[in-house]
Design goal:
Elements: E1 10-13, H1 29-34, H2 36-42, E2 46-49, E3 53-55, E4 64-70, H3 77-89, E5 93-98, H4 108-113, E6 127-128, E7 148-151, E8 156-159, H5 174-190, E9 194-197, H6 226-236, E10 244-248, H7 254-261, E11 270-272, H8 294-308, E12 315-316, H9 326-329, H10 336-351, E13 356-360, H11 381-393, H12 399-409, H13 412-415, H14 446-450, H15 456-469, H16 471-475, E14 477-480, E15 488-494, E16 498-505, H17 517-520, E17 524-530, E18 547-553
Parallel strand pairs: 1-2, 1-13, 2-5, 5-9, 9-10, 10-11, 12-13
Antiparallel strand pairs: 3-4, 6-8, 7-8, 14-15, 15-16, 16-18, 17-18
Bound molecules: alpha-D-glucopyranose and calcium ion.
Amino acid sequence: MADWWKKSVVYQVYPRSFMDANGDGIGDLKGITQKLDYLAELGVDVIWLSPIYQSGGTDAGYDISDYYAIEQEFGTMADFDELLLEAHRRGLKIVMDLVVNHTSDKHAWFQESRMDRNNPKRDYYIWRDGHEGQMPNQMMGYFCEPAWEHDAKTDQYYMHLFTIGQPDLNWENKQMREEIYTMMNWWLQKGIDGFRMDVISCISKPAKAVASDGGQGMDCTNGPKVHACLKEMHEKTFSNYDCITVGETPGVTPDIAVQYAGFDANELNMVFQFELMDVDSGPLGKWTTQRYDLLDVKRTITRWQEGLFNRAWNSLYLGNHDQPRCVSRWGDDSTPLYWEKSAKMLCTFLHMLQGTPYVYQGDELGMTNVRLDGLSEARDVEIFNAYRLYVEEQQVFTHDEMMANINARGRDNARTPMQWNDGKGAGFTQGDPWIKINENHTRINAQKQVGDPDSIFNYYKQVIHLRKAYDIITDGAYRILDAENPNVYTYAREDENAKLLVMCNFTAQEQSADHVVAYLGQGKYKRLIGNYANESSPTDALQAYEARVYLIEA
Ligand code: GLC
Ligand code: CA
């Protein structure tokens, strides 16, 4: 089917924390293969694997040291081939996460590049002279560190937008680009079904960002040649395969997204926007405990739903391996009832929008944020760097304030092991897990939910099934019905034949639904799904975190 990815649901697996088959405490490929039946049962179509390539280990796999090898902690290439085969046998597609903005500093290219200024690989990376004995410019990277590192051997600086162990590749270099395309084709030839392209909006650096002028540097997103590079990549790789491509693109607005993922852009199928992820940011970005305002969510979602309609395709997500758990952040995990209802409400809200929904592992169980009792329980480099900057160097947060921020927003929230059962290792491992297991696995786990028709898992399953059964969920135009209501989010999806009415209460208080009376008119309605058992009518008040979806026929 053309554009099959429009009807698909993608499930993100974070391999390190999904399933450990050999008891060393680290998830692995064999573990994923063991759990394919679970994913098939859930009904998802595509599995996105966070990076499994050989890695330098400074950023949990997002620092690749060999694009052609599997990280030994995760297994072997034979294990990968088996996973791919077994996935395909079940009708599941596999999308690889690909990091080509940077490599690991342990990658052979960088090892050569740093040897001397005339090395043939020198120009594969971004090397600059210092400015008056200091860094080329003042630019800061994404992880609370300067974006430049001095390398004594050749007395120049290399650029790294992320950790020191992640030198940025130089996309001005044609030979480097060709090597990347060859590698991508090698994987596509193997039979994988697409790529999620890590921070792909950052690959082309604006002149000021890489100038040795001592200046402030500048934002590296959407640089001057990014579209030329992606068109070239599309032509040399994607266009020859029936694959799905999604770009992680910090810095995109809907109009910019159309440049990357417009239906005739010949670049990517869709992009991950960050505007929604930023609605609850504080003055220091993500490091805050501040809760979002639903009106900001509405404005953002509406701008994207309307802005891409008939022009490009949305990706829909509320969380991933870089974000807190969606039920803790956008829902309410403060009581068992609110937890269950809000997890189902968020699922409804997201999956009924136009676009391809992404489920992050464990969201289908309502997995929550974890509580880290101190830095010794943290594992993520971003957390350590932010703590150093904000607590130790700048003292803008006390230890306790920063721990609260980390517990609200840190990436380790998403990275605790999958909760398969209530046993000691949560069914994830027989050994010592590499990161703490959330103690609520005794209550929240797959074993308890898969057989329970009222569970969050089975609710996800039903919602995923609806997407297959009703084309209006894929194609219908979006319309918001209560733009000014700070508590309830009501939207419709409309095509020539029918309307879909989606009602979501984002609060624990009962909320009136009078506002849908006019919209309903004389239409006949049928409830497709809801997270409370009663057969309500659309105009009944919404209970705590209630969600209901109706099909209305004229
Ligand atoms: C992306 C990844 C994140 C990683 C960063 C650097 O944002 O999702 O996990 O740290 O890129 O590769
Ligand atoms: Ca293992």
